[in-house]
Amino acid sequence: MAKLNKDVLFLIFEELQDDSKSLFSSLMVNRLWCETVIPILWKNPWCYDINYYNKNNLFTIISSYLSDNVKELLMRQEIQLPLVSYESLLFDYLSFCRSINVNTISIITSIGSSLDYIQFILEQEFYGLFMKKFPELKYLDMRSIEHQIFYFPEANLRFESLCELICDTSMDSSYFYGLAWLCRCIQRLIVFNVESRVYSDISKLINVQKNLKYFEWEDVIDLYDLGPDPYKEILLALENKAKTINHLKLFLIHVDYTMQKMLPKLHKLKTLIINLGTFSEEQLKMFVYRDLEVIRVSYYELKAAAIIIENSGGHIKKILFPSYELDDFIDNFNDASLIFIRKIYENCPSIECLSLTFPSLKEHFTEFEKLLKICQNLKELLIAICIDNDAAAWDDNTKFEEEYLENGKELLKILSRSAPINLREIRFLYDYKFSLKTLEEFLEKWKGCALSILTCDPIYKEENYVKLIKKYKNNGVIRDFRCENFANIVNFDFKM
To answer: From which domain of life does this come (predicted)?
Structure first.
């Protein structure tokens, strides 16, 4: 592989741009590999899992670019600068960089001084460098920003190429109006709502974008004093972008009339992550998304999700759970979950990643097996079987245990018989358990690719289970078997 030419290596390493461990290891192979990896690492050097408080490499490299006059001025302010010159560096690192993370820059400058006003001066000089040295600016995380960086002389050239922006509502409106003046090509916008106010500045920023494709808004604190229709200007601005928006994630405390009016118009959505339970059945029937690929489904929203799935264009690939627990047995759950399963195998032939919950009833197990047989592209599966814990029949723990074991036995029998050949990962929630014998029988019959299993039940850490799992890891049936918390299991972005 070391003999591959630089262009081929670059394509390979670009595929690994989110795998920092592999990229950093590749630096040490030879000079060609190092020369190929450095531009990829430095495209966004703030995104890797690095403890910036304890490592001053970035501070050393960035400060080396400062002019002698600036260095002398800073040292008069008792700022400690490393004695490294830009000319002595192996690469022109800043010429590769296309991103800014304000919080990381703040951490890095604290290496030079612990005094706030001196850190502010350093940050100002660093941002000035970035505007001069970066060929373009693609990504900006401006949370906690204190500098009007778009007023630097070269800022208009850098910001006109900005594609992704992460921000929060605590920032002064002047920042958003400044960005709206310079940035017209933002494709991905993420806003964390941390305070109640009028959002005219953010709606202005949305309105001037020419090709906004991804929008995410999250209320991260309890904002109960927002007043009527608090997001109206934001939602109307999004409605104006109906021709371009493909991905919408809204984590809102309040859902109002404007939301009900706006959503049916975003007909090009590929990702829809909102609270569906706030809409009536008639409203949901107006949500027709023929290109939909990803939808988040709450345990409480199975009926609502089934309506949207039925009206989709058959392209859904992911159905996800939210990150909170399934803690109550809800009304009409049996019927809603049965309809939900049917709508999936009738309308989602391309489904690859599926979160599923249903009661431990024969009809539901039958429909689940039918889904497995039809949905042959399924690769990742999360299963939760929900028992009504308040039912009168449950008067002792023994009956719970028996029901859990019976559910586990039935579930693994179905997976053994009917799981798609491409299924490579199963995430098990509750309410079921696998006896040692049942689990061994399942693993013995497994004929698919090496299987990864996630569970939140600590029983699988016991010695006899550990020994069994190790056996099937050694013979290639199990790729990985881990016990994780609920949040990691429901989050398919969490990889094993």
So the answer is: Eukaryota
